[in-house]
């Protein structure tokens, strides 16, 4: 019985020693490679460049409303999407005809209405100073970042970052007007593909129209050398 216990203790000691050895080797390896990022393989975040390079992105183009809202079926889809999106505004704004103001003015017939003029609502001085009639571009820009577009506005909403959502909400607000503003004509300068093509063509046209180097005219040929003087007699 005692011999069995001795054998068991020997096996257990060997297993324990092996485990301690493995742990020691792992600890030593961690100490050796702790500061070697290449060996350990720490991930490195790399910002993804936009297609065509950083300059290709360029400034954001405004929607071409005359094209985006030209198809009645597509416009109906956008209005339905905007109806869902406007729920985020419903805690502060009513949209029904003849509805009362809430924390914000009613949005019924807001399209075409001069900013800061709806009766019975106490607008901020900044909104009253803006005073422009709300149109496609104005609503689109205001929805993106109200406090940036009209500095000093009392509207607490941070903004709607997604372009397609803003387009849909503008289409919805347009649908709330009893006398909808006419759709503007399509504007090719707002089409991303045509804008990119025009930007690419501009440098080539500029190079073709460039004058000669330094703007100088070609040098005239040197005058012929004078005839040699006759030898003295």
Question: What can be said about this structure in brief?
Answer:
This protein has 10 helices and no strands. By secondary structure, the chain is an all-alpha fold.
**Head-to-tail CA distance between termini:** 146 Å
Which segments are poorly predicted (pLDDT under 50) over 5 or more consecutive residues? 31-57, 215-233
Total beta-strand segments: 0
Helix coverage percent of residues? Answer: 40-55%
From the alpha carbons, calculate the radius of gyration and give it in angstroms. Answer: 37 Å
The profile of the biggest β sheet is: none
Number of helices: 10
Strand content: under 5%
Find the structural class using helix and strand composition: mainly alpha
Query: Residue-averaged pLDDT, rounded?
Result: 76
**Large-scale geometry:** elongated
Query: In sequence order, what are the helices and strands, one letter per element?
Result: HHHHHHHHHH
Structure, explained:
- The protein has 233 residues and is mostly helical.
- It is 46% helix and 0% strand.
- The protein is built from 10 helices and no strands.
- Helix 5 packs across helix 9 (163-175) and helix 7 (136-144) packs across helix 9.
- The longest helix is centred in the N-terminal third of the chain and has 32 residues, at 2-33.
- The protein is elongated.
- It starts with a helix and ends in a 25-residue tail after the last helix.
- The model is unreliable at 31-57 and 215-233 (pLDDT under 50).
Distinctive features:
233 residues; mainly alpha; 0% strand; disordered C terminus
